[in-house]
Write a structure and sequence with these properties.
alpha/beta; Rossmann fold; two-stranded antiparallel ribbon; 9 strands; about 30% helix; about 25% strand
């Protein structure tokens, strides 16, 4: 445990150097043991500030990217958030520390089952999971005050914008090629959307069931 805390301290310092300023985000990342979300073969690298494979051609994102996306959402304890792409559940757990409820969708059942077991182990009661096509969102639970997409879309997905509340924020990577993906923060207004480019990122593509099948 002491070694893990030292690793977490080192990671926190790296996040601060990378421009993460929200203390609540830093505290949430410090509190969630990343080694729980990493496959056994990569346990020794759990607290590296780098992405790691989790199977099924998916990754657990670099902690700086997780922190940047979380900070960009401007969360508080009243927020209801939709997450597209549960993956290992690491980002989900951090969100759950910071908001009222997280609705999260994953299209790979083995990953979702493993993530659900981790949520139970950590004692989370404000995470609702769904197995299915995240590109379609979760219409039955809409609208959401925040939406986070952990896979790269071709453009800002209209179907998800339709499920975002007025005044809400979506954070989504956009771009066809890995080297040209941009992380966007999208604010929905009464009449339009306002888009802010937060920089280059690299994510697996957002795939619908039609495209997969």
């Amino acid at each position: 445990m002491i070694g893990a805390r030292l690793d977490a301290d080192t990671l926190r310092a790296a996040l601060i150097r990378d421009g993460i300023t929200d203390e609540r985000v830093l505290d949430a990342i410090y509190a969630i043991p990343r080694d729980m979300f990493v496959p056994p073969a990569f346990k020794e690298r759990s607290y590296e500030n780098s992405p790691l494979p989790i199977g099924l051609h998916q990754t657990i994102s670099q902690p700086t990217v997780v922190a940047m996306m979380t900070q960009a959402l401007e969360l508080d304890d009243r927020v209801k958030i939709l997450e597209i792409g549960t993956g290992s559940g690491y980002q989900t757990a951090i969100l759950a520390k910071l908001c009222r409820r997280v609705y999260t969708i994953e299209r790979h059942r083995p990953l979702l089952s493993e993530a659900e077991a981790r949520f139970d182990q950590l004692g989370f009661t404000n995470i609702v999971t769904r197995f299915g096509d995240g590109s379609m969102g979760w219409k039955e639970q809409a609208p959401f005050s925040r939406i986070i997409v952990t896979a790269a879309a071709i453009d800002v997905p209209q179907v998800l914008l339709d499920q975002l509340d007025v005044g809400g924020i979506m954070v989504v990577p956009v771009g066809l090629e890995e080297r040209t993906q941009h992380l966007l923060r999208v604010r929905k207004t009464e009449d339009d959307i306002e888009t802010e480019d937060l920089g280059l990122v690299r994510f697996v593509p957002l795939v619908s069931d039609e495209e997969a099948g």
